[in-house]
Amino acid sequence: MCDDHDVAIPAPPPSDVPCSPMRPASAMSVLAALLDRALDQMAKAAADIRLFDREAIRAASDVWDNNLFPLFWAASTSDADERERRATAVLEWMASLGERRRGWMTEQAAIAGYDIEALLAPARPHTPGRDYRGHVMAPQYRLTHQNVDELVPDYDLATASVRRLQVERAGARLTASLQLVADRRFAVDEPAPPALLNVWLDGVTDIAFDLSDTQGVILDAGVQKIGISLGPGGRLRAAGGEYHLDDRSWHLSAAGRRADAVVPPRTSRSGRLRRPPGGDLSSDARAAAVLLRHSMLELRSVRYAARADHVPVLKLCRAFSGAGEAILAAGSQYGALRREAAFQDVIRAWAGQGGPDITRWFAAVLREHAGRPDIIETPRPPERTPPSLTDGSPVSGTPSRAALVMAAWTAAHTDYQTERPAAAQLQLALPPRTDKSSSEPWRLRTVGCTEPNSFRLHADAFRGAGPFVQVGKPTSACSLDLHQGALLIASGTGWSASVS
């Protein structure tokens, strides 16, 4: 039975279903809907910190890294035919950035009620590429029995070592990533960096790992079931997964030689970057685009675990709620002056929806990156409280309960001729700092340590909120225990921050 601060881990929620019937596709309407869908996805991913989905936030914000200025360009005309032509070009550009991007666009457009495939040229089949030297590059593979059988003749997994393990919550699911250092079974022409096998698992169902489980790997890929054994007692079980070899000598392997025989040679056009469609924006449309792009970059910074608890995801998503429709409405106004005024109104509306902290940050972005300090007024900061994008600094006191969001361990290694010590990192969902109201939201806290003395992780560590114990001081020798030993990490040198 869960108490007021516990969260029962639900079964995976049913997928969003498209509106019925599917609406006739307008390219500009689809483009605007995709922006709004991304914001909705991020808001849902951060709605309950105990089910925080960092990857969903990173992926949705990453869509708009180089696509926001094209979106504003497409929207900024009152000529409906020209707007459709521009929007179609932008959608084609976005869909050309890989199978995953096109799949995301198709899925999210369908949820919004649009059939985007009617607007796009047929997808081109994916083929492996070549690097700047002309050597064929390893593609990303599904973890299947056949693919693992083809991997083993080239790389010795029995002697492989774990360089990094990370297990993380993604809403109601668990995911894991594993980086292995694998010995090559084939000869290389010259000394080369170690071959790294990167494995990603989805739908993780079982975990067991401690510091005695870092040598020796067995991969067992079955139908809808992946099993990985690590050392004498470590294990990972998952519904599915993928892997990729980070090995600049892969072209010399048996699999690489087979690929080299069928992949077309690199040409002068192969490495040429395509430019996104677009054109000059008016001053206020550009200011709105700059503001939204900087906000997307801020949201995307959750990709760095240490940044995740400093990004106000919900506040930013609330500020830009309905942004796609608002941009379309402003850009389609007749006359340049009306469009400019409409984009100014859009920026002010975003600031109003975000609240004082967000407005202060918006004003700084507009001043420093768009040269427009005149569009919104900067609210006065609270007395003796510096303007901040976050909700304030932690107070002392270790909570007695916590929920695990992410746990990672990295072995000592050399990276680009730099010695890296062993390290551990945790993301924890912590209860409200006050017990006055159980309706207060939980908080995300990221802490890390170097050269941990122990690191033990079992599946039970992720079963919602549970008893949390800190022994010692976070600035010196200190251990953290969650769910009575399901997670146990001890550091002799202290943690990067206190858990409070």
List keywords for this structure.
about 500 residues; alpha+beta; 3 domains; eight-stranded antiparallel barrel; two-stranded antiparallel sheet; about 30% helix; globular; disordered N terminus
Description:
The protein is of the alpha+beta class. The protein folds into three domains: 27-124 and 283-369, no CATH class; 140-259, no CATH class; 401-491, no CATH class. The chain has twelve helices and 16 strands. It has helices spanning 27-46, 54-62, 68-75, 80-95, 99-111, 145-151, 254-260, 283-300, 313-319, 323-331, 336-354, 356-369, and strands at 140-142, 155-170, 173-184, 195-209, 217-222, 225-230, 234-246, 401-410, 413-415, 418-420, 423-430, 443-450, 452-458, 466-472, 478-482, 487-491. The strands form two sheets. It has an eight-stranded antiparallel beta barrel with strand order 2-3-4-13-16-15-14-8. The longest helix has 20 residues, at 27-46.
> What share of the residues does DSSP label as strand, in percent?
25-35%
Q: What form results from the Cα inertia axes? A: globular
Low-confidence stretches: 1-15, 17-21, 390-395
In whole angstroms, how far apart are the ends? 25 Å
Structural class: alpha+beta
Biggest sheet features: 8 strands, antiparallel, barrel
Number of helices: 12
Q: If you compute it from the alpha carbons, what radius of gyration comes out, rounded to the nearest whole angstrom?
A: 25 Å
Tell me the count of domains: 3
How many distinct beta strands? 16
Largest beta sheet: what is the strand line-up? Answer: 2-3-4-13-16-15-14-8
Compute the average pLDDT.
89
The secondary-structure element order is HHHHHEHEEEEEEHHHHHHEEEEEEEEE
| Helical percentage | 25-40%
